[in-house]
Amino acid sequence: MPTPPLAGGTAGPAALRPLLDTVLTALEQGATRRGGPLPAGGPDNATSRMRTAGPLIPDTGTGAENALRTLVTALTEGAADPAHPHCAAHLHTPPLALAAAADLAASALNPSMDSWDQAPAASALEADLTAALATEIYPHATTPDAVITTGGTEANQLALLLARERHGPVQTICAANTHHSITRATWLLGLPAPVVVPAPTGVMDLTALAEALTRHQHPLLVTATAGTTDTGQIDPLDAVADLCATHGAELHIDAAYGGPLLFSPTHQHTLHGLDRAQSVTLDLHKLGWQPAPASLLAVPDHHHLDPLHHHAPYLNADDDTEAGLPDLLGRSLRTTRRPDALKIAVTLQALGRTGLADLIDRTLATAHQLADLITQHPTLDLYQRPTISTVLFRPTGATDHTVATIRRTLLNRGHAVLGRAEAKGHRWLKATLLNPHTTPHDLHTLINHVTTVTDDLTEGSTPR
To answer: What's this model's pTM, rounded to 2 decimal places?
Structure first.
């Protein structure tokens, strides 16, 4: 077998072109065979069908085209595809084609973002992009900055780490609606377990927060949420920031979901007070339509990131730094990492503010259309009007067990991917709408799928 060609260099594109044609054909054929948002038949069927692709480590290789065709087709056929309008369970976005294309370039060039000599242009692009996005979050700060992370979990952990490095073992105060990564971060960092205040309406209770701030000793770090995982609600950020200022506490805001609303003149008011936090998490692989990962942690002053600096002579020798080579190790806790800035930068430049705002506004409007359909339906109950693009609903009078069974039946039939959430003492079906191409017909069909399964279960028939 000849030595396989490389993706980079002047010969790389010629080697990639026929392989990409194979991949694109396999993606198309796999999606056609699947015919829905996910494969029917549940986990056993998906696993067995994937294994028909053959041994993964054969004695003799099958060749590039055959391996790509076989495995990409099988993976696509067995995928939960967020590009399908009925795949709406999680904050699992359908990536834009232009962002995926940019990600291909990043993979082919393979810059490693841990030293300048591995990523000369990519390091400059990342520095400019993170500064620009940090300025969106902190428009009045003199030297805001951000670091790119693998997701909201890593960004939240970094936020707590930086607070610990500033103040020692901080006591975190969060609400019951807070993402689980906050509790995990305190465990990983050896910090006290969070003090959890109630969120009876889905957002942080301000009276309970004030009591907690009064009762606990400093240093204190409040974590608020702009876009909760279960309901998409946004804590009263300004009021939370006021209480933090009154009690001398720091504030971190997890805006992994809701942060991109900054780009929408129609919806950015919902984030008022965001720039009062000492750190902010923002994901663009949610309401930003990027292939994962595409996340960041922003701070109002670049010096807040100083604790991340680390010395490894083979990557950032002192004399190299003094000679002007940028030191990249302080840009992450990771060493080898991808140039995720490229796909984000391509998207922002291609769409501009107005293009991104249109995607956001279109997606949020679709969520309200679904809420309207649910409100008008005689056998469905709506939890509340959507704050962002998450819609909770349930069949009228259904038990929590029935709601869970409806969801699993839809999965097994391959008809819809809906999430589940607990709110107001009940279990709800959760539609997290992130597909800007979703049509009213798609929404009607989704509701019909839910009501058909509900009727089947009510009539005692075996779920199909």
So the answer is: 0.96
Number of alpha helices (DSSP H) and beta strands (DSSP E) in the chain: 14, 11
Whole-number Å distance between alpha carbons of 56 and 108 = 23
Report cis status (omega within 30 of 0) of the bond before 82: no
Give the neighbor-by-neighbor strand order of the sheet with 250-254.
145-149, 295-299, 279-283, 250-254, 220-225, 171-175, 195-197
Q: How far, in Å, are 7, 178, 296 from residue 100 at the CA level?
A: 16, 31, 19
Q: Print burial letters for 147-177: b (CB count within 10 Å at least 16), e (below 16).
A: bbbbbbbbbbbbbbbbbbeeeeebbbbbbeb
Residues 414-439 as b/e (b if ≥16 CB within 10 A, e otherwise) read: bbbbbbbbebeeebbbbbbbbbbebe
Sign of the torsion angle spanned by Cα atoms 371, 417, 381, 379: positive
Could you give all domains of the chain from N- to C-terminal order, each with its CATH number? 105-350 (3.40.640.10)
Q: Residue 320, CB half-sphere, CA atoms under 13 Å: how many?
A: 14
- Residue 189 contacts by C-beta under 8 Å, 6 or more apart in sequence? 157, 160, 161, 164
Number of Cβ atoms within 10 Å of the Cβ of 5: 14
302: phi then psi, degrees, rounded to nearest 5: -60, -25
Place of tokens 């008022």: 272
Residue 421, SS3 per DSSP: strand
Rounded to whole angstroms, the Cα distance separating 301 from 162 reads 12
| Continuous H helices in 255-399 | 313-316, 318-322, 341-376
Q: pLDDT per position in the chain (464 positions), as tens?
A: 789 999 999 999 999 999 999 999 999 999 999 999 999 999 999 999 899 888 999 999 999 999 999 999 999 999 999 999 999 999 999 999 999 999 999 999 999 999 999 999 999 999 999 999 999 999 999 999 999 999 999 999 999 999 999 999 999 999 999 999 999 999 999 999 999 999 999 999 999 999 999 999 999 999 999 999 999 999 999 999 999 999 999 999 999 999 999 999 999 999 999 999 999 999 999 999 999 999 999 999 999 999 999 999 999 999 999 999 999 999 999 999 999 999 999 999 999 999 999 999 999 999 999 999 999 999 999 999 999 999 999 999 999 999 999 999 999 999 999 999 999 999 999 999 999 999 999 999 999 999 999 999 988 755 44
Amino acid at 128: D
Reference 142, options 301, 26, 34; nearest CA is 301
Percent helix, strand, coil in the chain, to 5, is 50, 15, 40
* Separation between Cα atoms, residue 4 and residue 64, nearest integer Å: 9
Look at the chain and count its residues: 464
Give the count of alpha carbons within 13 A of 165, CB side only. 13
